[in-house]
Amino acid sequence: MPFRDRNFDVVHSSAVLEHVGSRENQAAFIQDMWRVALKGIFLTMPNRWFPIEFHAVLPLAHWLPAPLFRKTPRALGKDFFADEENLNLLSRRDLVMRARKAGIERSDIRTVSLFGWPTNLLLCASTQPA
Fold first, then answer.
1. What's the whole-model pTM score?
2. Could you please report the per-residue DSSP string of 73-127?
C-alpha cells in the first residue's frame, strides 16, 4: 500500500484476503496492513470449513484438496474461481499462521456464525501491549 508506516489508527479489510493469491501473498497483505496500522487491524474473510463456498456457490467442493477443488469450478464453467489468484480460502489455523508469518504474534480470531456454523473468520490484532 502506498502509505507511510503507522498512517492509520485501525486498518480494516473485509473479504479481500481470499482474493490476493498465494499463501505468501496473503501473508504479505496482512503484513502491509500491520505496517500501516497505528493501533491495530481488523480483517474478515469466509471460513474455508463452512459447507457452502459462497463465491462459486458450491457445497463441499472447497473441502477437497486444492488441486481437486480447482478442477470442480472449472468443470462447471466457473473458471475465475478455479484460479488460486482469484480464490484461496483459509481455515482458522491457516489465518493464524498467515498472521504470524506477517509478524503478528498475538491475535484474536473470532467468528460470525449461521445456525451455529462459523461462516466468517475475523482476525483482530492490536499493536498496543496487552
1. 0.94
2. HHHTT-GGGGSTTT---B-HHHHHHHHHHTT----EEEEEEETTEEEEEEEEEES
CA distance 92 to 31: 17
Confidence of residue 128 (pLDDT cuts 50, 70, 90): confident
Which SS3 state, helix, strand or coil, does residue 33 take?
Answer: helix
Backbone angles phi, psi at 2, to 5 degrees: -85, 50
Q: Which amino acid is at 24?
A: E
Pick the closest to residue 123 from 60, 37, 8 (CA basis).
37
Please give the mean pLDDT across all residues of the chain: 96
- Tell me the pLDDT tens digit for each residue of 39-78: 999 999 999 999 999 999 999 999 999 999 999 999 999 9
Structure-block grid coordinates of residue 7: 498512517
